[in-house]
Amino acid sequence: MKKFLEGVGVLLLLAGVAGVIRELTGGWFHFMGLTRFLTENVGFLEGRELFANVVVAVFGLVLAIVGSRVGERRMTKD
Question: Each residue of 46-62: pLDDT tens digit?
């Protein structure tokens, strides 16, 4: 579970950062299509692409931190 949470968190963090860079550079940075799919196909995110990518990056960071804490908590209880 620890590695899964950390892995998903890192992937979301990278996707969010890539989306922020893409939005700030005017769209020429096409590293990851995940954020473009998210922001262009969800109606209420139209015009809020930068905010959505920041939220994805922060959520990824939180997941990575939670994943690392889950491992620490199990080690201390044993």
Answer: 778 888 889 999 999 99
Q: How far is CA 1 from CA 10, 11, 32, 76, in A?
A: 14, 15, 25, 16
Q: What whole-number distance in Å separates Cα of residue 10 and Cα of residue 65?
A: 10
Interhelix angle 34-41/49-77, nearest 10 degrees: 120
User: What pTM does this model have?
Assistant: 0.78
Domain-by-domain residue ranges, the chain?
A: 2-77
Amino acid at position 1, single letter: M
Cα(61)–Cα(66) distance, rounded to whole angstroms?
Answer: 9
Angle at 42 between CA 41 and CA 48, to 5 degrees: 110
In sequence order, which residues have a C-beta less than 8 Å from that of residue 13 and are 6 or more positions away?
57, 60, 61, 64
